[in-house]
Amino acid sequence: MDEFKTLSGKPLHPEARKMQARFNAGQIDRRGFLRGMAWLGVAAGAAGAAPGMLRAEEAPKAGGTLRFACQIQEITDPMMATWIESSNLLRNCLEFLTFVDADNITHPYLAKSWTASDDLTVWDFELDERAKWSNGDAFGPEDVIFNIERWIAPDSQSSNKSAFEAITKVEKTGDNSVRITLSRPIASLPEQLYSHTCAIAHRGFQGNWPADPVGTGPFSLVSHEVGRQAIFKKREDYWGTPAYLDALHYIDLGADITTHLAALSSGQVDVLYRATIAEFDLMKSLPNIQILTGKAAHTLAIRMQVDQKPFDDIRVRKAVQLAADNGQMLAIAYRGEGDLGANYHVSPVQADYAPVDAIARDVAAAKALLAEAGYPDGLDIELTLGNTQGKWEQDTAQVLQQNLAEAGIRLKLNVLPASQYWPIWDKVPFGVTYWAHRPLGTMTLDLAYRSGGAWNESHYANPAFDEALNKAMALVDPAARREAMAAVETILRDDAVLVQPYWPNRFSAAAQNVRGFVLHPSDFFRMDGVWLA
Amino acid sequence: MSLGRFLIRKIAVAVATMVAVSFLIFLALEVNIEEVAVKVLGQYSTPEQRAAWLLQNGYNDPFLIRYFRWLGNFVIGDWGQSTYFRAPVMDMVLPRLGASAILAGGALLVIIIFGLGLGVLAGMRPGSVLDRMISVFSVVTTSIPDFASAVFLSGIFVFWLGLLPGASTMISGFSLRELILPVAVLGLYSMGYLARVTRASMVDVMGTHYIRTARLKGASLSRIVLRHALRNALITPVTVIMLQLPWLLSGVIVVEVFYAYKGFGTLLYDAALNQDIYLIEACAMISVLVVVLSQILSDLIYGWLNPRIELGAKA
Prior knowledge:
Number of helices of chain B: 13
Oligomer: heterodimer
Number of helices of chain A: 16
Mean pLDDT of chain A: 90
Number of strands of chain B: 0
Low-confidence stretches of chain A: 46-56
Mean pLDDT of chain B: 86
Largest sheet of chain B: none
Distance between the termini of chain A: 41 Å
Largest sheet of chain A: 5 strands, mixed
Largest interface: A-B, 35 and 27 residues
Strand order of the largest sheet of chain A: 8-9-10-1-11
């Protein structure tokens, strides 16, 4: 145990000792071990890689301007960011208490260390005293308290309100320390503090960040024009390790990814935010670009609102699940480039995933359930979708349409433009919603399926599920957590809330001279470690 | 009818058209004030915030009063605030209109020079090899819609040959290279169509008695074409060219979106996608204005080309 020390210098958490014993006995894998140790504020030397640093072997070169193709959206309030793209713009100037790398290991950031009480309900964060705001103010506990209180305020519209509803108190305990008290144990609190809505704004923040773009981050905002471009320049007075790039230009190239690739191919941009399966062949044919691929826990949730007819009858929901052919949706709509889903919205790439079997497709059983539910002649339902991530969403829905037809379910597709889908994503009885990656299954489930959760679009409410989720969220030990998650996943699967067909692989592309750009599974792109060869 | 009276009459009709269309636009977008409040304040606004905003902005007044107030504000240049771009609509629309005018102007130039040129060349000697080649070219370009030719041209000149930029954002200022592909896409379709119309018109004119007389008098072909045939042969093509103006305004949407060109087309597209109510209203009004102005302009050009056509005469 000698090689492990807490970042704060305080004694190791009892769970850390138990975990090391299980790790030494080969009962938990290295990554799960490192993740769990990081949550408990252990400076696991092996957790090593500096956040967001390059993985290239060449010596990094400072200077240059990197052009990043992505949608330029409005950035007003960091806690209200609903698109990852807009949170990435803020990420250049605003920082987080913790940083979660592409391997889902949590590192210090604005908080240099943290310790948890034995029961994981009291968390002490030690803030980095070097951190400074761009307006010259020192960063301190007041900033953290100001932000967390805004997140969980009764009138807060942020998804943080639900994600951190267990926070009962946040208080200053020293010049550079804060204490967060929870109503129930949450082992992954440090990891959750890197959610895209958790950027820490200045204590004097008035609600419109570009109007007074004060930040602690390595870049400062030069200009921001919705639908056009955003320009950032390197901060020479940055408190931490300075960025390599002199400037960052984010350019809005519209929604057509082919245009993004054309711009990349002709040297007009250096990095693309995202590509989809539709452009995969084109990407492979371009000799002058790097293709970036990866797996992540992002998916389409084809969810049913359990309090809306006809989905208030579990037999109808089960019939939909039984008639859906997840394998066919993956094979046709995403050309097999991904992993199968099993309708419980936890991915094999998430550390707390427990392999719970999918229920096999059975069209005859689906028909029987429909007849039992009072629909012997089939059923007419409408599925609303917005192709928010690309045409593959509609392709998936079309395969589902054919699948359901076999069971007598006549599915009508209501395809909306992406921007028209988001305002109603949680209102339609049957909808296709893209869910971004989260490092832990519990984080997604807590947001999307907990009774009364802010983003609970299916209106699912099951106390047994909530209880099982609470239990899983309180465990640090990866093996114990997985065991608890098996129960959570089984409840969700058996309550037939959604068809979650597959986990699509992620694609992006960059120019050949871009170094250190890491395809983060959550698309949280920190640019301070990126440089141009 | 004198030119002055003609213009007064045409402008009166244009104004009446604008007023009628403005009423329809306002009716479609602002009849439901609750929806207006949601679009302006966002989905997450509270009912109290919406009610206060509606009261503060006079939305509780009767519909007609709201309409005339909106029309009055529009006339004096107060076009409201874009809810998506968070900027005054007037400041958004005018530069974008300028950018589209450059694109459409370039395309029109290509259409006129190549369309008329090819049409005249083909019509001078009907049935010749040149005529047949131009006819085939015209049919091919007219048959390919702009979204398809955008893909083909990008495939060839961007991905394959690597000669031209793939996006035309003009973010770093005006770039002629970035203009080539969108202009080419817009130009190709109409160029072929104009060439066919010009050819047919030219063939008709070349068969008339006065052209035969000119030939018998020993005039050269170039003199016959340039001095005698062209002016009369242009009347029909000019109709086509003038029809291109409103078409270009809508045609640029596809091309601008494909090439990420920040013009009026992408602005209208973004406004529609994001239900940016005041921006949609302004874009719709501008579109109607362009159409009515192009009609007046085309009438004037007809009169100049053929003085026998009386300005404002009923067909």
